[in-house]
Amino acid sequence: MKGWCLTVIFLFSCMLAVDGQQMNIDGFARLKRPLWKRSKVTVDKKLAMLDLYTSEKGFQFTADGKTAVEAEEGEGVITLKVPHKTRFVTVKHPDYGQLVWRVPKKYLKKKKHYRATLDAYDPTKAYKVQKQWVVMNIQPENAIVRMDSTVRLLRQPTTTYYLPVGSHTYQVEAPFYEAVTDSFLLTDSAKMVLTVRLQPVYSYLTVKTPWPNMEIWVDGALMGRQEATSMRLSEGNHRLTLFYDEYCYHDAHISLGRAEKKVLELTVRDLKPSPLTKTSRMAVKPLPKEQPAENRQKQQAVAATTTADAGIVKAPVTLKATDEDMEIWVDRELVGNGTWSGMLSQGFHIISTRQNGQESPLSYLWIEDEFPQEVNLAVPQAGYGRLNIVSNVVGAQVFIDDVCIGQTPLITEELPAKHDYRLRIFHKGYGMVTKTVTPKANDLVNVSVKLKKKK
Predict the structure, then answer these.
(1) Average pLDDT, rounded, for the chain
(2) What are the residues whose beta carbons fall under 8 Å from the beta carbon of 25, sequence distance 6 or more?
(3) Residue 378 CB-half CA count within 13 A
C-alpha cells in the first residue's frame, strides 16, 4: 500500500511539472573512453556524475525528491554529483518553472559519468540567437585580420567567424596597402558578409618636356605628350622613356617614395637623341585607339555625376511582405503596406513588419554600394526554431525541401518547429549530403556536415 501511495505522489508531481514546465532534458548518454584514445573520463567512487549542457544559469537540483544536489557551473555546462542509484532528478528555476526528469536507463550509477542537454525557454518571449556567422571576403588574399582580440594570417580571400551578437571591431592590413579599421553590428537575423578591399598606397609622377609632340612613356605605357601626369603608381622604381620621331631622347629609372607626388621637369640639355634599338622598342606599345565622340561624352557625363554625388551612396531597395495589408517599417517609420520600393543610403537600416497589433523581430539591412537589393520580409511566428548549418567547406549550397536558402555557414530564418525538413548540402567537386532535421521551438539546432571529395 505504501508503494502505491509513493507511485501516485510521484505521478501527480510529474503531471504538475509538465503542466507548467518550460524545460526539457534530452540527448542522455553515458560518457565512455574510446579504445584508441588515452583520454580519461572523470568519475567518482561513491557518486554518479551528470553533465547538463545549457547556456542558462540559476538552476536548483534535487535527487529522488529529497537530496539536494550541488551544481558546479562551467562554460555552457553544469556538472552534478548525485547519489548512487538516483532514479529521477528535479530541476527548478525561478523563470522556467520545475521539471521532474526520469532517468531513461533505470538509475544513475556510481563510478559512471553521463551527459545530457538541458533546454530552457520562455514561450512568452521570442527566441534570440546568441551567436551569428560572419563571412569576410578580403582583397588582396594575403592579409592579416585582427577581429576583436584574435589575429589571423590569411592565405585565402575568404575567412569565417562565429561571434556573439553585438558590436565587433576589426582591422585588416597587408604590405603595400592602406590598413582598414572598422566596426560592425552583428544581429541575429542573418549571417553578415563583409567585403574589405584594401587600397594600395599610390604615388604620382608628373613629367614636363620642352617639345609639344614628345611622347612620355612610363613602364611601357603611353602617359601623354609634352607634359603629363601618371595614373596611380606603386612605391619603387619605374622606367621613364621619351620618344620623338624615330629617336629615343631619354631612358632612365625614376624612384618614387610612399605616396610621393614627384614632378620631373626636363630641359633641352637633359635630352640626348639616340636611334631606336630593339631594346628601346620593347618599351613602346601601340597607341590606344581613339574613342568615338559619343563614348567620350558619356564618360564625361558619368564622371560629372560621380563628382556631384561624391560621398553619397544610395541603392534602390524593394521590400516585399507576405500580405498586402502588412505594414512595412524602415528605421522605425511606416513606409508602406505589402510592397515598398525606394532609395536607401549607405549604412545599416532597421526593417520590421506589423500586423494586427504584432511586430516582427527586427532585422538589419546593410547598404554598401549602389547595387539594387530585394528583401522578402518574414512574419512573426509563435513557435519557430532555427538551424545553425556549418560544413567543412565554406560556400557549400544549402537546400531545404528543394529550396536554396544560401551557403554555409549560415543560420536559417525562422522555421515552424516540430516539422521535419529535408536538408541537402553540396559543393562542386564534393559529394552531396542529405539529412532530415527538425527545428525545436524557440531554440537553435546545430547541424554540422562533412563533405567528402569525389574520387
Answers:
(1) 79
(2) 52, 91, 99, 101, 116, 117, 118, 119
(3) 16
Of 79-88, 113-122, 229-238, 407-416, the poorest mean pLDDT is in 229-238
User: Residue 84 carries which side chain, given as an amino acid letter?
Assistant: H
What is the Cα–Cα distance from 147 to 268, expressed in whole angstroms? 56
What CA–CA distances, in Å, run from 441 to 47, 119, 190, 418?
Answer: 34, 10, 18, 7
Query: How is residue 311 written as a grid cell?
Result: 560621398
The per-residue DSSP string of 323-343 comes to STT-EEEETTEEEEESEEEEE
Q: How far is CA 335 from CA 68, 330, 379, 421, in A?
A: 57, 7, 17, 35
Report residue 168 as a C-alpha cell: 565587433
Average pLDDT over residues 287-305: 45
Least confident of 5-14, 27-36, 296-305, 419-428: 296-305
3-state secondary structure of 299: helix
Please state, in angstroms and rounded to a whole number, the distance separating the CA atoms of residues 142 and 175: 9
Name the nearest CA neighbour of 119 among 78, 82, 85. Answer: 78
Angle formed at CA 177 by CA 175 and CA 179, multiple of 5 degrees? 100
Interatomic CA distance for residues 214 and 227, integer angstroms: 9
* 395-419 core/surface letters (b: 16 or more CB in 10 A; e: else): ebebbbeeeebbbbbbbbbbbebee
pLDDT band at 312 (very low <50, low <70, confident <90, very high): low
Question: Could you give phi then psi for residue 99, rounded to 5 degrees?
Answer: -135, 130
Residues 200, 188 contacting (CB under 8 angstroms): no
Separation of alpha carbons 189 and 261, rounded Å:
47
Assessment of whether the complete model's pTM goes beyond 0.85: no
> CA 259, CA 272: separation in Å to the nearest integer?
30
Question: Average pLDDT of 127-154?
Answer: 84
